[in-house]
Amino acid sequence: MTPNKEDYLKMIFELGGDTALISNKQIVAGLTVSAASVSEMITKLVEQHYVTHTPYQGIKLTASGQQKAAMLVRNHRLWEVFLVSSLGYPVDAIHQEAEKLEHATTPDMADRLAKMLGKPQYCPHGGVIPDEDGHYLDQSRVALASLDVGAHGHIERVVDEAALIDYIFALGLHIEDHFRIVAKDARTITLHSREKDADLSVDLRRASHIFVEVQE
Fold first, then answer.
1. Which residues are CB-neighbours of 176 under 8 A, at least 6 positions away?
2. Which end of the chain is less congested by CB atoms within 10 angstroms, N or C?
């Protein structure tokens, strides 16, 4: 499988395509690629039985696609943990390095790496790390962009994509930060960060790839 196909499977997994239908538009935004490129790749993934595609409804991973995506995500996120905990990389500088390492990672190497790291369950960006059998904990499916004014909670995870990670770190937003939504319009959603004691305006498209736990 080519690295490009692997990136698509990982993105579909991250967007919730393991349990629900997701749209081509979500993948376009997540990978910053053209709609035509997404359509072409989805056709290939359907032919290889990694995803199903229901017209006008969405895309979902098949059982084999979910297993493949889980292993790719496992490799990537284990390296992210290693880069931060063992090599001292800053959290916003690990994605590209892990991207290179994951493609050369064998199952035995991943298992040894996981054991050395204490079998972590989450990466530094809040994403779940599947175990050697492809099992993983539930992860938030609630996007920041879906919230209304007055909602509050904390940031649980962000889609593991370099441009998004750079964007939220530039804003000063981090995993586990607590927030309350104070404004929302057609282009941005504004939250008040408890940790920064400041209002932060987040592009609504980016906010669709930031996942949260909402508190009552």
1. 126, 154, 155, 156
2. C
State pTM to two decimals: 0.88
**Half-sphere exposure in the Cβ direction for 1 (13 Å, CA):** 21
d(CA 6, CA 208): 22
Q: Answer yes or no: are the C-beta atoms of 27 and 15 closer than 8 Å.
A: yes
Q: Is the pLDDT of residue 21 over 90?
A: yes
The yes-or-no verdict on residue 1 having pLDDT over 80 is no
The CATH homologous superfamily to which domain 144-215 belongs is Ferrous iron transport protein A (FeoA) (2.30.30.90)
CATH code linked to domain 3-61: 1.10.10.10
Closest CA to 121 of 107, 131, 113: 131
Alpha carbon distance 106, 112 (integer Å)? 10
Two tokens, residue 78: 């284990």
Q: What's the rounded Cα separation, in Å, for the pair 189 and 182? A: 8
Residue 33 has what pLDDT?
A: 86
Predicted confidence (pLDDT) per residue in 150-180, tens digit: 999 999 999 988 888 889 989 989 999 999 9
CATH number of 74-136: 1.10.10.10
Q: What are phi and psi of 135, to 5 degrees?
A: -90, 150
Burial of 104 (0-12, 13-18, 19+ CB in 10 A): exposed
CATH 2.30.30.90 segments of the chain = 144-215
